[in-house]
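--- STAGE predict ---
source: upstream dedup step, 1 unique chain passed
mode: sequence only
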Amino acid sequence: MKDDVEQHIGIWERELPWLDPVKEAIFMRLSILARHTQQLRRDTLAEDGLPHWQYKILMKLRRLGPPYAASPSELADELGLTRARCPRDWRRWRRPD
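--- STAGE serialize ---
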């Protein structure tokens, strides 16, 4: 019995004969594994009441080092987001001065 990855490979082998089926299967399985682990991390964080977006901000601030602060624009740049996409919550979610 073929799984989803093997079916995917079978379809694309006909369409793209130059496709390396072994490499494509590896990439597909890694992609599936990554999705599962990302969801597990999101679920684990949510159990402790920490939304994933806040976790990403905390991790980015930690990587920036002391004083562990950045403006919303700097965070957007660091996270690869457009500045317009910065949630308004980012501006409210900060340590009081």
